[in-house]
Each structure stands twice: as structure tokens, then as C-alpha cells.
Known about the structure:
Elements: E1 8-11, E2 14-17, E3 27-36, E4 39-49, E5 54-58, H1 65-72, E6 80-85, E7 88-89, H2 95-101, E8 103-105, H3 118-125, H4 134-139, H5 142-161, H6 177-189, E9 195-199, H7 207-224, E10 227-231, H8 235-241, E11 244-249, E12 252-257, H9 259-263, H10 266-273
Parallel strand pairs: 5-10, 5-11, 8-9, 9-10
Antiparallel strand pairs: 1-2, 3-4, 3-6, 6-7, 11-12
Amino acid sequence: MAKSKEKLVPVEGGVIPERDAGTPPVLEARHLGIDFGGLTAVDDFNFIIGRTEIGGLIGPNGAGKTTIFNLLTNVYQPTRGKILVGGVDTRGKKTYEVNRMGIARTFQNIRLFKALPVLDNVLIGMQGQMQYRLAGAVLRLPSYWKQEKAAREKALELLSIFGMESLAYTPAGSLPYGAQRRLEIVRALATGPKVLLLDEPAAGMNPSETAELMENIRKIRDTFQIAVVLIEHDMNLVMGICEGIAVLNYGQIIAKGTPEEIRNNPQVIEAYLGRKGGAAGC
């Protein structure tokens, strides 16, 4: 099993874990910016993620973190700069096209189909990978049933990784909060991503659930060999699991580095505490 953390090494555009240095970054943002009317929400944002990196994007409330995720998934089109997924520019792509390129995400507010069973929520995440034609689906041809059977098996396998296979036929809305969070992650994984973006995955979780989440994030990276990027306010989670961390403030990166470097960075301390001195609460 890969280690949860590894030495960061410099590459063109930033730093990535040493184990990923031999391959191009899976995700790059170059001089990214967006304006809403006369307001600049994000400016000159530069960010790279290695192919199996667990990275963090942190910052005070209102710093622009979720706006960044909306840019990376083309919910918002950037005013300037570019985003590359596996070296391919996402400019002009629809959100579903970016997903098919390999970017999946979860949201601050859980967005499940709560009246549907857990299994169906996961199967919905797989729809973009189904290859049968409309006629095959309407007529229920053998090709349709073959793919449906394979999809259900894969969905149950994904659920089993998180110990949720016994809940497959339970309505998603009746799950405890932590289980709903896990289900949303499973559904994102069902799209077959290269990068998984987690927007405040520990929000509303108790310490036990957060500790389980940390292990699940490591399991995701190690099992699927993909990158994971999280926005999170729980600094114990961020510092305990992330290999590289970028700190955003007023739409700009003010620091990038390892957890130890970020913890002791005076600019980060000032951004969070509004003053200099002392160790950051991160």
C-alpha cells in the first residue's frame, strides 16, 4: 500500500509527491481567474496535482475555494487562464464533458436522490460509461442486460469497499449523515475519475466519522490510484492526510507547501487569525 505522505519535489509549475514526478500532473490550473461583474473572485491561481496526490485547498471563509472547484469542473467558465486535465485543455467543455475527462466532485450540501435506493444512486453515476444504444435499452436486447449486470456488480463492489453493500436497497434519504457523505463519494467514484474533488467532506461529522473519512480517503487513493483534492475547515483532517496544501485568501494563493510548511507560514497564520505571531491553529 502506498504511503499517505511523501516528499514533495519541484516540477514545472509547482511541487508534487516524489512518486508522481515521472508522469505529467493529472490536473493543472494556469493563471486562472474569474470576474463577476466588477468583482475579481479568483486571480492568477496556479495549481498542479500529481497523479496519486492527496492535496488540500484551504483558506478562510469567502476566500474563493468553492469557486475554484466550480472552475475546475466548468460550472463556471474562467475569465482568464486555463485548466488542463491530463494535459488537455477543458476550455469550452460542458460540465458532463469535464466529468468524462476524469474530474468528479462532491458538494458542501449533500446532493443525493434521497427517495432512490443506495444502489440506484451509484448506478446513476455510471450512466456516462454505458455503451448500449437507445434501441437496445428500449427493446431490452442482450447487450443492454449484459451492461446492466456488469454495472450492478461494479456498484456493489464500490459499496463494499466502504462497508455499505448491506445498505444497497435502503433509501438514500434514510441513511445517517455520515453514510450519506460516503454514498456521495461512492457515486463520484462510479464515474471513473482521475481526480476526485471533495468539498468539505467532513462537514457535520463527529470525530469518529472524521477519522473513518481519513482512512476512506487513503483507501480511495491507494485502491484506485487516483488523485484526491479536498476543501476542508477541519485542520486536523487536512494536516493529517494531505501531502501538498495550497492556501487561498481573497481569491489568490498566498502559500503552497507541505503541512509542516503551511502550519508555520506567517502569511497563513495572519490570514486565519488576522494578526501575526503564534502557531496557526492548523
